[in-house]
Amino acid sequence: MAVDEGILRRFEEEWQGNAGKIFHIVQAEELQTVLTDLADANGVSDQNPIVVSGLSEKWAQWIRTWNMKQVYIWNPEDEAEEFRHRCADASVGITGCAWAAADAGSVCLYSQKDSSLLPSLLPPVHVVMISAAQIVSTFREGMDRLYRDARQGGEWPALVKIVAGPSMTADIEGQLILGVHGPRDVYAVIVDN
Amino acid sequence: MAGQLPYDNRPWPERRDAALQNQTMRHTIGFVTRRFTLIKGEIYRTSPDLEASRKTAVGQKRQAIRDLPQLLEQFRNQVERRGAHTYLAAQAQDAVDIALNIARSHQAELVIKSKSMVTEEIELNQAFEKAGIPVRETDLGEYIIQLAKERPSHILAPAAHRNRHQVEELFQADASREKISPPQSDEIEDLTRYARSRLRQEFLRADMGVTGGNFLVAETGTLVLITNEGNADMVTSLPPVLVSIVGVEKIVRDWASLTEIIQQPAMSGIGRHLSSYTTMIQGPKSPGSVEGPREWHVILVDNGRMALRDTEFEDVLSCIRCGACLNACPVFREVGGHAYGSVYPGPIGIVETPLLTDFQVLPELPSALCTLCHACQEACPMDIALPDHIISLRHTIVKRHLNSSTVNWTLRTWARFWSTPGGYRRSISLARVMQRLSGKKRNAQGLFPGIFAGWGQTREIPQVAPKTFHEWWQEWKERAEEK
Ligand code: SF4
Known about the structure:
Chain B: It comes from Sulfobacillus benefaciens. By secondary structure, chain A is an alpha/beta fold. Chain A is about 30% helix and about 25% strand. Chain A has one domain (about 5-190): Rossmann fold (3-Layer(aba) Sandwich), CATH 3.40.50. Chain A has helices spanning about 5-15, 30-40, 55-65, 80-90, 140-155, and strands at about 20-25, 50-55, 70-75, 90-95, 100, 105-110, 125-130, 135, 160-165, 170, 175-180, 185-190. The model of chain A has no long low-confidence stretch (mean pLDDT about 95). Among the domains of chain B are: about 10-165 and about 200-305, Rossmann fold; about 420-480, no CATH class. Chain B is built from 23 helices and 10 strands. Chain B has a 6-stranded parallel beta sheet, sandwiched between helices. In chain B, helix 3 packs across helix 12 and helix 16 (about 345-355) packs parallel to helix 19. The longest helix of chain B has 24 residues, at about 25-45. Strand 9 of chain A pairs antiparallel with strand 9 of chain B, so a sheet runs across the interface. Iron/sulfur cluster binds next to helix 14 of chain B. Iron/sulfur cluster binds near residues 320, 379 and 381 of chain B.
């Protein structure tokens, strides 16, 4: 599917307006460079690993070939409780998304067996991978997409989450602070192909 | 049936004076409300499609309120089909009892909560504490006022009345109670970091979560939660048991209606297209998922709401709690939320508090805290006729003799004198006599009867002139005619 440049630019603008950051990549090596920088900047270690969930098989493979040993990719065969502990200690969480909306600068994640929301919630850094073709022009279109997906899938996901920026508060003296409960930094990695 | 609402039983002048003396609160509230009002106007101006959505949403929401009983039934069927439990609580106490029973049956030891006005309304925390079950508020502002044992001073900025030093003191005391390391300084960054790590442990440990709800979708059985902090995501993802307590009026008919209305709270409240996190719950978690509650209970709270249907006040049930009317109100900007004495402050609060309780609670609000400037009317995204309601409530209050006898006497006397030109003239000559008798040469300060006595104390009241303009005109005319 051809990618609409206008939509892409609008998404970038609005996402950054919501205090999110953007990377563009085309292939595996670039993703690995981006992630290596993020891992260094955020103190990834054995105790504070990277947790991953909800990526397409191709992208999951990109991450596997990165050869970073402190990476846990959620597998529905695994013990949920253990993954939860890893997420609680993790320094970076990586997820895919179901769709992104340009005009609201937002991404939408579905909680399913093979895609957990915890990597987007517990670590201080959330990286969401988006294929350029997943970006719809308006949030309204995204809501339609969600409705269709649920109808076609026969079941609604138990939880759906829309992210439009980092976790923030202005509860003390009206001053804006990022990263109160959820992530302080949100990165969108847009895969152009 | 009338609802039950907690309230501050100090009289209004006392609440007012306390508010006016709290400089921290007035400064922050003044700043926050003006900023929100500004960016709200801006974002609607630059998003014509969302202004169109807003108008559609108003019509749809009004219809949903008319169809409330059927839509609630549909919502309950949908979520129960997916294995959740639903309850209808007629009054505040019923909602509390249901929630307590759920907690007890699971032997809950720690409950975590995301922000919810309706749980303030039903005083859930107090009931849980009394039952020996600790409840932890996790919205930063709510957490602060929970430590301070206070109520929210703004729907969206509950701790706006406390500055960083006061917050640090609360956190220091909390840290020494919990034997954990205190915040590093009173910098807001450090205070927030303290709250993050302190509450993180409780998120992971809690065995029950409590949320409110921004919208319920009848067609799909969806509950929508909106936050900027992401704490509602923690509450819906982590504890094994989830209880959502939601006012019945939060219902919308279908997904299409949700699409029109879902961005309005963030647009009107904080001037953004969306808050940072919007979470939708459709049911308990499916086996094998990492997150989500094993058990989900939805308590739908009436507490005086149903009784407003088919009355002139029906549109009040469309409120989305965006806070725009608070931010726009010149009275709220001066006195903040506590002065109202109700969990619902601001223009919507002075309408809703007496209405939900059939005038049992704070019936003086519509008369005491409104200047009828209509700023709220302009601000409200749901086109709720707040000023009209305030006038109508004032009528009802007089008709039902809910004013104190001094107020009634004063207003009756005033009306008797000033409703005819002759009466007006008589009142002025009377005031002149009184002024002479009281020996006060300078002005007529002490001369205000009844409730106006206070009015005279805080204002420079001009002296009653020895001769009114009318008298002077009459004399001048007579003299001119004589010539
Ligand atoms: S009355 Fe209107 S402006 Fe006030 S909180 Fe409700 S929806 Fe917002």
